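Input (Ferric iron ABC transporter):
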Amino acid sequence: MNIIEAKKYIYIGGEEMNKALKVFLFGLMAMALFVMAACGGTDEAAETPVEEPEETTEESAEEISDEVVELDGQLVVYSARNENFVQPLLDKFSEETGIEVLALHGADPLQIQEESGNVQADIFISNDIGALGYLHGEELLEGSNPEGIDTIPAEFRADDNAYFAISARSRGFIYNKDMITEEEMPKSIEDLFDAKWAEVENGYAITRGGNGGMIGNVSALRYEWGDEKTAEWIAAIKDNAAGIFEGHGDIRRAVGAGEHSFGLVNNYYFHQQLLEPTDNNVGFIYLDQEEDQMGVIANAAGVGLVAGAPNEANAHAFLEWVLLPENQVAFVGESLELLINSEYGAQYPPEVEPHIIEFADLKVQDMPLKELGNYFEDTKALIEDSGLDLDLR
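Output:
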């Protein structure tokens, strides 16, 4: 019986019944100690140490107290993902386990580092596996062995399972079909070196440098090209982009509305724009698919166990819970990302389903995703040094 099943079993009798049962059992133990003490009239009985049963009683009381905390306690989740994607998942966990979830949405991964001397979070949810890898490298995430971890391929998790990914995405260009055709669109990430793309109708859009998707994109280019060429690419897109936005959701809406011809986003933002009641005449270019090209840049979203988690038992419960097939599907939720375990059957709206392309059908950059963590912090410095601000000004 795993921890999730155990929780469900204990909850069958209701909280009040559990508490009453614990009080009754504790009372029986105390009565037994009293009788033993009263009957100790012989020398042999007097020589029998009473410390052992007393220590056992104290340990039992502590175990009962811990169990109450585990069942009725809290789970603190820091999340860097969109609240609309994460909160329904956390609500589902709370409803099924009885554990209250306190969520901080919009959290920066470096907040985990800043709080390392006074740990507040139990779980960190990231839309960038590089951020999880960075925290793990700084020993801010802790290894574990939750039931179900074998369902996650090795390339999508840390060697000690301190973090693992559940959903994945790739980079590319969303474009407005009323403004530019598929044939006219750039087909490689390297194409953005050319200033001619600044001349297309209303130009193209990118995110600020500190956006998680941009950091992962630049980290992948550093792996592929080295820092010098990557810095030149950053300078080029900063100079040539017609719009710099806070996030990819802003870009998809701007492209759909015709404010820009195309924009650099993750593929699931294209899926989301297809569901808009208007401004949905958009397409998507998966980049660098030719034989001599590097392949599309990929990234993944997942969870990490914070080292020194205040509610460690509940954190482990969450890891096992989210690894259940139905909850891996729930993790994808409204984001419309690609499920790593596609056989679990993530459901996509009919407007999106014909446009879903699995990674197996794409040429993907030959880079272990766990490598992104080795570039995370230095990449932000390179982006700034190359002239692209991390935050909008």
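The domain at 73-167+300-344 is CATH 3.40.190.10 (D-Maltodextrin-Binding Protein; domain 2).
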